[in-house]
Amino acid sequence: MTFPAMRMRRLRRTDSLRALVRETTLDPGDLIYPLFICPGEGVRRAVGSMPGVFNLSVDEAVREAEEAASLGIGGLLLFGLPESKDETGTGAWDANGIVQQALRALKASPAAKKLVLMGDVCLCEYTSHGHCGIVKEQNGSFDVENDSTLELLARTAVSQAQVGADIVAPSDMMDGRVAAIRSALDAAGFTQTPILSYASKFASAFYGPFREAADSAPQFGDRRTYQMDGANLREALREIELDLAEGADMILMKPAMPYLDVVRAARELTGVPMGAYQVSGEYSMLHAAFERGWLDRDRATLESLVSMRRAGADFIVTYFAKDAARLL
Ligand code: PBG
After folding, report:
1. Is 70 exposed, middle or buried (0-12, 13-18, 19+ CB in 10 A)?
2. Closest residue CA from atom 11 of ligand 1
C-alpha cells in the first residue's frame, strides 16, 4: 500500500497517538548523574566550562544525591578531586580518600543510598602528571605503563567496594584491567560487586571540560596511547569482546553523540547491559547554544538523550540528569 491509501501522518495527529506508537522511552531511572567530590565543607564551586555543574564537598554531594533520588534518577557516578596528588595516584585507593569519604556519607543517607552508587576507577584525577596510569620515563620519552598500573586500579576498585560502591567503573583503558579488578574484588570477598567497564572509550576532544571539572588534564602528552582512535569502530567491538571475556558485567560507551554508530554496533554485538556516556563536551556544547538562544534547552536536552536510547543504550551517564528528570 502506498500513497494515497497509505498516509504516515495519520499516526502523528495527536499527542496520544504519538505516545502510543513511540518506539523509545526515556525514564529518570535510566539516568546516571556524575558528581565531582572535593575536600572541605559547604563547598559548591561552579565549573566554568560546565554551567550547572559543581565541585561539591561531601556534605553538599549528599544533599545533591538526595535531590537526585527524589527526582527518580537511577544512580551516581563519583569522581574525586583529592587534597593532594602524587606520581602514583595514591589518593585513588586511600581508605579515607575523597571518593571513599563520599561513598561512606552517601551510604549513611537513607535517601541517597537508594541510588546505584558507582565509583569511577581511574588514576588521572589523583596523579600529579594527570595520566591514567604509572608514567615511566625512558630515554627522554614517556610511557604510561600498563601492567604495573593494573594493581593500583584493582586496589582502587576494592577500596571503593569496601566503603559501599554498588558498582565499580574502570575508565583508564589499560589492557587487562577488568580481569585484574575482578580477581582482586573476588579475593577481597566482593564477588557480588559488578564491573561496569568503559569498554569503548575514545581519545576525545569532548572530554575537555571534564578535565577542568576534575582537574585531571595530562601535564604532558595526551591519552592517545591508551584511549582509542576516534576513527575505529571494529577496534571498539574488539575492546568490548575482550572486556566481556575478562568478566565485565556491563559496558559503557563514550563519548555518546559523536559515536552513536558505535553504540548501535555494540548493541548488535552483545546483550549485556550497556550505557552511553554523554560526556562533558557534549553538555558544554549544548549549553553554549542554549545560552545564545540558538537551541531550545528542554527539547534539545531530551532529544539528545533519546538518541542514545534509540541507538541501543540501556542507561545514560549525563550531566543533564536532573534537568531531564524534571522534564520527564
Ligand atoms: C577518567 C575519565 C575521563 C572522563 C571520564 N573518566 C577523562 C579522560 O579520560 O580524560 C571524561 C568524562 C567527561 O568528559 O564527561 N579517565
Report:
1. exposed
2. 207
For residue 244, what is its C-alpha cell?
566481556
Phi, psi of 153 (to 5 degrees): -65, -40
Residue 138 reports pLDDT greater than 90? no
Q: pTM of this prediction?
A: 0.97
Mean pLDDT, range 23-48, rounded to an integer:
98
- Extract the C-alpha cell encoding 290: 542554549
Residue 139: all three cell numbers together? 630515554
Q: Which helix (H) or strand (E) holds 245?
A: helix 234-246
The overall average pLDDT reported for the chain is: 97
List the grid coordinates of 294.
540558538
User: Domains plus CATH for the chain?
Assistant: 26-327 (3.20.20.70)
Cα 282 to averaged position of ligand 1 atoms, centre (Å):
12
Q: Are 197 and 248 in contact (CB under 8 A)?
A: yes
- Are 255 and 210 in contact by the 8 Å Cβ rule? The answer is no
Ligand 1: residues with CB < 6 A are 120, 122, 124, 132, 171-172, 207, 210-211, 216, 223, 279-280
Q: Give per-residue pLDDT as tens, 63-96.
A: 999 999 999 999 999 999 999 999 999 999 999 9
Gap from CA of 43 to ligand 1 centroid (Å):
22
